[in-house]
Write a structure and sequence with these properties.
Number of domains: 1
Number of helices: 6
Structural class: mainly alpha
Order of helices and strands: HHHHHH
Number of strands: 0
Length: 105
Amino acid sequence: MIVSEKDFFKKELGIYLTEVWPSLQFMIFSILGGAYFDAIRNLRYSLESVLFALSSFDQSDDRPSYYHIIDSLSIFTTLEKQRIKALHGKLSQLVHPSPSHLKSC
């Protein structure tokens, strides 16, 4: 099935992917300026947005479990799913640091 460009941008994934480019530019600018926390937060948001758009979960879910969403995606292999979960976990850890992490900084 061939999807026209017009139909692609009407879909949720198309909307998120067109948002990725300005977000990517902002993340690069943040990193170059030393605002690492902002860059990590935006990277996590972009990852979650794309994962949610790829999934078939309903928007009415309050807080979806992203590990559950990753497991539901059949386009990834088991190894790729593990790597995406590890990336999401690390980004979450950096965005929501623990008190012991803050003391060590």
